[in-house]
Amino acid sequence: MRLLHTSDWHLGRSFHRVGLLEAQAAFLDHLVATVHAHDVDAVLVAGDVYDRAVPPLPAVELFDTALHRLAEAGVPTVMISGNHDSARRLGVGAGLIERAGIHLRTDPDGIGTPVVLSDAHGEVALYGLPYLEPALVRERLGAEKAGHEAVLAAAMDRVRADLAGRPAGTRSVVLAHAFVAGGAPSDSERDITVGGVAAVPTGIFDGVDYVALGHLHGSQTLSPRVRYSGSPLAYSFSEADHRKTMWLIDLGPSGPDGTITGDVRLDCPVPRPLARIRGRLDDLLDDPALAPHEQSWVEATLTDPVRPAEPMARLTERFPHTLHLVFDPERTGDDTGASYAQRLRDRSDQQIAEDFVAHVRGGAALDGAERAVLYGAFDDVRVDTAEREVGR
Q: Which UniProt keyword terms apply here (predicted)?
């Protein structure tokens, strides 16, 4: 049986204020084309279908179109809700939609009820574990503690209990949306820490043949049978080095050597490459080695000791798709590295303001004209305050 594992579509999300709906539509076109080109038997979507609980209408329309196309392809799809989704909204009409071969698993009460498919080697039971918020599902699952590890362990107990009652040789697949130990996060995942602990051990999933994970945006293999597909698009510059893919997994017959007989990473369309560049502004504008990034989405970190004038306008002349600007000034020789709070001690308002301006622009002191502007501002404030006090 051939499975296509994907996750974290985040339909409706933007990238530094750049809309991604067109790129997300291109990915879904690619997904459907992949289903046909590789004779996929089932599609697995491991959560975060949408980017927020109440997605914008264009994102809902795109999702609806994708469901119709997958149903028309006649390929079963199993989909769970993630921590960005509203499980109840995503699950509306699940019973009716299931008749078209789209299996939405958003209710924790259905964890132990798999979607059962068959091939030449027998049955494959696919269990959907939606994102489990510990405080909300602990009692329903009978978990010992209110933590991610405890509720996932309770959920997997239900999976294993159901699997134990099935015919010998039944292969098993679990879809889950969680932070599993060993996975490498990026800046674009929402924190799901509970009680200081977010990650759960891979051993929680012992006893099943393949675990299709969602939540982390980088494609990664925690073990041959436990994998993240990652997001199909980059949603932060921390993903600049990611290769965005889906997993194509072949399940053979059940046996002592495992059931996975093939695994291939299939690349997703890239709407525009990402680049992170760093240096002084003039160097970035003149460096010929940066020519390949001129049409990329760019995050630029400027190291000029003094903040240059109109840096974004100047950058976009060479890099028109610059989206994010960071200032990390080089330290001057007299910069002791003392914290800003330490430099405030025993200083007048005027001195504090001068110190602040110098601090944020890398240690460069104010000139006479700048000091005069600050002095005038403080003087105006003092006069205004005095007038207000008199008028009370």
A: DNA recombination, DNA replication, Endonuclease, Exonuclease, Hydrolase, Nuclease
